Description:
Shape: globular
Distance between the termini: 25 Å
Number of helices: 13
Largest sheet: 7 strands, antiparallel
Order of helices and strands: HHHHHHEEEHEEHHEHEEEEEEEHEEHH
Strand order of the largest sheet: 11-10-9-8-7-14-15
Radius of gyration: 20 Å
Strand content: 15-25%
Helix content: 25-40%
Structural class: alpha+beta
Amino acid sequence: MxxxxxxxxxxxxxxxxxxxxxxxxxDTFNADYLxxxxxxxxxxxxxxxxxxxxxxxxxxxxxxxxNCGIAFPNTLICTYxxxxxxxxxxxxxxxxAASILRQSNVPLIFKPSIDTSxxxxxxxxxxxxxxxxxxxxxxxxxxxxxxxxVIQELVSQSEDTAVFNPSxxxxxxxxxxxLDNQISICSIALKCGAPKAVVDNIGRGKRGVIVGVNxxxxxSDAGFFGNGELxxxxxGIAFRNKRIEHIGRVLDAAVTLxxxxxxxxxxxxxxxxxxxxxxxxxxxxxxYPGISxxxxxxxxxxxxxxxxVIRYIREYQKIN
Length: 320
């Protein structure tokens, strides 16, 4: 482990021991695994430099950044910099935005445009809730409370993902690496929400689940709760022998998306399959894309490119 990571980190290598010990319970020791104690302080910020990573994570900007034919949820209203935009990305007054929402006759999802980790601030709205939100939009209270936000219609998901939890939009977390003009898939996992939950976030306890998926669509036999506990089922549904038929479309979408933002080398994509098995981009995680649960599902995050990443980090550190 010291020989692998020691030249690019500035903390004792023993800081990584707890993660390796935890992983040995599900896999053999492999120095290519990257502990968070090494990743977040010394690697992530080099792979995804500021201010790019912050700007590219803004949900209201997704349509502008990733204009490459990949589908998005139907967004009725979004804001950035406090300016309101309609579904055609035309600026509108707050009163117009409220009117658009009041005309909607379907449930809506409200999301802050930044910092929604673990589903923070995400709300399902319908009926009276929408009317209250419209009042707050007209008064300016919404922006004052949470900053920029997006309001979208729900995405009807594929039967292959709905089986694990129908109330949440269960998304694939596909992590991609772009280095030396080559984009590769680092990990593939499916996030499944807790019973009756709206979001697919795992959380820190025993609520949502993340489970690995192979490139051929076969779901791993075991998944993990947010506390790291292994589980063979979710909501009574066994993972064994389950297969995502159109996983190839999701992986192709992730690679296509990353071509548009090579300035961020490592991105965790949240991509859903809709009811017609069309990939839908929910967000691209460029700020602290996770690796811990992803490695538990898919193995060492950089795989056979680990030494290449280490060389890149070392060369960066030499000239900065």
